[in-house]
């Protein structure tokens, strides 16, 4: 199978080189081309051709050539209003929809000024509607660059969280799309990436390189696989067709010593274009911390992205995306770990060429080969016993290479796409681990449940002879790696390949006011200790009620869910419950691919020409549901699999068009995420282990919403305000008040624990059952059910609800200059009211992370 993949990829590379020379793929973006003539059929030169989307604000313009021809490239998928103007003629207007990479042909005949003519424009509000069976949100650069959010090295994640109501936010750039944990596929100019893009796993494409994003949260079409809870179709910025040099140079400085800069430079003509983005940032609060105050949290990120386009003619197009980035991070400490000095380094590089061949006006061939590598290094403290309760180190690599190719054909009512997605992921893992605290996994406990007995006692059967009892939570699988009891560090080394082959066919059929999406995908997965196949029918129906400005939709998909690749080798070797046996690796059960049935139903409703309402209901049943298990207070996580999950909820968005400079939207989401035992994989669980057969995972949140309000005065001064509400994720590690009283004094103080007028502080030794008696045990940050009242399914502990406000003020032309080069300036204030809140606390799946305190960042720059 490896040879088949290699031959296929090499063959496509050869086809690319021998048939195109140097040309450019426009990835998932589209093209509009055509000619402009007068009533006699003569060409109209230098006519202005403009497209515009009233919701995203995206626009692009060009002038017709001497022969009347024009071409608009790199257009994000969306409906657009096209307008053509020329001196002496009436304006020509037409609504055009970009839903595939096949070029849309337009032939415009301009009427002489003053004569009567008809225009092909739909009724009011139709510009906003998308007749699509799958729910999605569009975010353009105009929105992304003015979001007043601050998260070093994770601007892309923040843009996604603040654009769609379908995701619940978590620490360090994590987010949970529609009840799943980070199960996201990024498609960047045609390059599919399903591995983790959070800054603690990898590096992210900087938001400065993004032109637009289509965030699909509904039923995925057949061309998408692996991780389909959210698909981010990203179109990067391009210099093709610019006609001049353009760019920006910015410098920033703010709270926590946050300093950075950004350089963007683009240039091009009708045939050649290039865009370069260079970004860097250093911050004293790089990661979200386990305490409200940041300790040992300096980090920096550098990235460089370059996109080269070449279109020698109207048939061939070539592109080359190059990306390299680095994160260097201190691992933030808690009050219980002030002495440790753990660090992390991540290196990423990616090479993604591509080729498109327009065979005729209705047929387009697209080939996207790629290769991408992540290198992850985790360093323990120089003194292993400075790390508590364990020391760990890691060096792993993830190399992903393959090709995605498809043939798109439009004919009458049909828009057909036939394709394949072939790839191999090469894994290398080195991992070291040792327990440094003899109270972490004691063999014996005393009458109060505290660690007891000498460190030389290794057999629980010997506890009774010393007047103690065996520890009921003792994990024998960890004993060989307990350095306080004469153990040796775990030293794991593993390599392995994951081969994946997918073939798909899909057709979009327009029949009057109906649109039918029908597709089928076949997946073959050859992974770590397992081989599986997936047969995946997919169907969607959308109906456009033009009279009322309504689109109704319903869809179904069978999907093949693939395991997370990060630390997959070790996690597939540990078996049920992680390290559960005395001999490492015994009872191992490899993590298997999952299978999901997904149903969606929703609608779009235009209110006049100024307001668009979009809402969607989803229901997903998965056999083999994935998550990560965090290793203590580190950024090292291990993939785990649950027997099944049941997810359902609602997402929605209300958007305005541009109302004389004012534009706003409000997103909302509700998710129920129920997971079922048993669990496979992982290393060791943090916090109190879950019990029973069903529980709410930390992706479950009753309600989240985001309001974004922007006003810009002409092309200069602007203000942006965001309001984020989260009702609170589930806290798995501290299920009730009894578990809270078992925390360390510092942990109790961190969550603001109190009872009967007694308050836990960092100096008073904490609270205990003797101190609290029958008084309720309360927390400032957690809902904390009382002992006996917690229910993993119906009444789990949760983070308390929070409102967070951000504010941005700036100018795109500070001195109101008429020159091409302009000075820009802005100030962003994140967490305006300095709200103290956590994303989660001692979560088995994500650890402890506080929201950032009030953070102010100022920016000054030049655009040209």
Write the layout of secondary structure elements.
Blueprint: H1 2-20, E1 30-37, E2 48-52, E3 59-63, E4 69-75, E5 78-85, E6 92-98, E7 104-109, E8 136-140, H2 141-144, H3 155-161, E9 167-169, E10 175-177, E11 184-188, E12 191-193, E13 210-216, E14 230-236, E15 246-254, E16 258-268, E17 272-283, E18 299-310, E19 316-330, E20 343-360, E21 363-379, E22 390-411, E23 414-435, E24 444-445, E25 451-452, E26 469-470, E27 490-511, E28 514-526, E29 531-545, E30 550-561, H4 568-571, E31 594-607, E32 611-630, E33 637-656, E34 662-681, E35 694-696, E36 701-712, E37 717-726, H5 737-741, H6 745-750, E38 753-755, E39 758-759, H7 769-772, E40 777-779, E41 802-811, E42 822-830, E43 838-843, E44 847-850, E45 855-863
Parallel strand pairs: 1-7, 11-14
Antiparallel strand pairs: 1-4, 2-3, 2-5, 5-6, 8-13, 9-10, 11-12, 13-14, 15-16, 15-45, 16-17, 17-18, 18-19, 19-20, 20-21, 21-22, 22-23, 23-27, 24-25, 24-26, 27-28, 28-29, 29-30, 30-31, 31-32, 32-33, 33-34, 34-35, 34-36, 36-37, 37-41, 38-39, 38-40, 41-42, 42-45, 43-44
């Amino acid at each position: 199978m490896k040879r088949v993949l290699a031959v296929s990829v090499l063959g496509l590379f050869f086809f690319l080189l021998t048939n195109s020379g140097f040309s450019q793929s426009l990835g998932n973006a589209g093209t509009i081309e055509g000619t402009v003539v007068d009533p006699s059929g003569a060409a109209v030169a230098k006519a202005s051709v403009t497209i515009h989307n009233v919701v995203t604000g995206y626009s692009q313009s060009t002038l017709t050539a001497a022969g009347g021809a024009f071409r608009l490239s790199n257009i994000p998928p969306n409906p657009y209003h096209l307008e053509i103007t020329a001196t002496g003629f009436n304006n020509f207007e037409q609504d055009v929809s970009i839903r595939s990479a096949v070029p849309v042909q337009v032939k415009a005949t301009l009427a002489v000024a003053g004569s009567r003519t008809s225009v092909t424009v739909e009724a009011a509000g139709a510009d906003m509607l998308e007749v699509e069976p799958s729910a999605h949100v569009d975010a353009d650069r105009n929105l992304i660059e003015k979001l007043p959010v601050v998260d070093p090295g994770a601007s892309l994640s923040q843009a996604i969280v603040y654009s769609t109501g379908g995701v619940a936010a978590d620490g360090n750039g994590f987010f949970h799309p529609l009840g799943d944990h980070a199960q996201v596929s990024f498609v960047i100019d045609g390059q599919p990436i399903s591995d983790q893009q959070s800054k603690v796993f990898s590096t992210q494409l900087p938001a400065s390189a993004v032109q637009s994003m289509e965030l699909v949260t509904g039923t995925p079409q057949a061309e998408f696989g692996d991780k389909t809870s959210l698909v981010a179709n990203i179109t990067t910025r391009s210099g093709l067709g610019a006609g001049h040099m353009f760019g920006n140079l910015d410098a920033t400085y703010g709270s926590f010593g946050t300093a950075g800069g950004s350089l963007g430079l683009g240039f091009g003509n009708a045939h050649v274009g290039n865009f370069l983005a260079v970004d860097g940032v250093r911050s004293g609060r790089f990661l979200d911390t386990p305490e409200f105050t940041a300790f040992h949290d300096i980090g920096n990120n550098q990235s460089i992205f370059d996109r080269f386009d070449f279109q020698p003619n109207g048939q061939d197009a070539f592109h080359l995306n190059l990306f390299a980035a680095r994160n260097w991070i201190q691992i933030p400490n808690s009050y219980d770990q002030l002495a440790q000095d753990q660090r992390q380094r991540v290196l990423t590089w990616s090479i993604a060429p591509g080729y498109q061949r327009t065979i005729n006006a209705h047929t387009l061939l697209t080939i996207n080969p790629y290769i991408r590598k992540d290198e992850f290094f985790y360093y323990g403290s120089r003194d292993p016993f400075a790390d508590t309760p364990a020391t760990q180190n890691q060096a792993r690599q993830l190399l992903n290479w393959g090709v995605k190719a498809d043939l798109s054909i439009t004919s009458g009512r049909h828009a057909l796409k036939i394709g394949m997605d072939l790839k191999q992921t090469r894994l290398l893992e080195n991992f070291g681990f040792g327990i440094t605290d003899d109270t972490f996994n004691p063999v014996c406990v005393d009458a109060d449940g505290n660690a007891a007995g000498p460190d030389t006692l290794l057999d629980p059967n010997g506890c009774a002879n010393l007047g103690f009892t065996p520890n009921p939570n003792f994990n024998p699988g960890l004993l060989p790696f307990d350095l306080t009891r004469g153990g040796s560090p775990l030293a794991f080394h593993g390599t392995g390949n994951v081969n994946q082959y997918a073939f798909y066919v899909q057709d979009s059929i327009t029949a009057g006011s109906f649109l039918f999406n029908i597709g089928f995908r076949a997946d073959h997965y050859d992974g770590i200790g397992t081989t599986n196949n997936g047969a995946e029918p997919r169907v969607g129906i959308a109906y456009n009620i033009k009279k009322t400005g309504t689109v109704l939709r319903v869809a179904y998909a069978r999907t093949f869910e693939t395991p997370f690749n990060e630390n997959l080798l070790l996690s597939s070797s540990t078996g049920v419950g992680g390290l559960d046996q005395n001999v490492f690796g015994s009872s191992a059960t490899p993590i298997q691919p999952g299978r999901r049935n997904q149903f969606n139903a929703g609608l779009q409703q235009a209110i006049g020409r100024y307001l668009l309402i979009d809402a969607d209901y989803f229901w997903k049943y998965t056999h083999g549901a994935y998550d990560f298990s965090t290793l203590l207070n580190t950024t090292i996580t291990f993939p785990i699999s649950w027997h099944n999950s049941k997810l359902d909820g609602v997402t929605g968005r209300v958007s305005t068009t541009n109302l004389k400079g004012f534009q706003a939207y409000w997103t909302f989401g509700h998710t129920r995420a129920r997971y079922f035992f048993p669990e496979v994989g992982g290393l060791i669980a943090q916090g109190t282990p879950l019990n029973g057969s069903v529980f709410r995972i930390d992706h479950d949140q009753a309600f989240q919403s985001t309001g974004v309000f922007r006003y810009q005065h002409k092309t200069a001064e602007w203000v942006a305000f965001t309001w984020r509400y989260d009702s609170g994720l589930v806290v798995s590690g501290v299920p009730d008040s009894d578990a809270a009283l078992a925390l360390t004094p510092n942990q109790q103080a961190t969550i603001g624990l109190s009872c009967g007028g007694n308050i836990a502080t960092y100096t008073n030794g904490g609270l205990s059952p003797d101190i609290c008696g029958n008084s309720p045990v309360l927390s400032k940050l957690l809902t904390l059910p009382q002992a006996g009242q917690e229910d993993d399914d119906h009444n789990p502990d949760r983070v308390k609800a929070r409102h967070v406000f951000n504010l941005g003020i700036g100018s795109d032309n500070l001195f109101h200059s008429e020159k091409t080069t302009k000075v820009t300036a802005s100030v962003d204030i994140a967490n305006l009211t300095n709200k103290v809140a956590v994303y989660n606390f001692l979560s088995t799946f994500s650890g402890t992370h506080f929201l950032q305190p009030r953070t102010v960042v100022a920016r000054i720059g030049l655009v040209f």
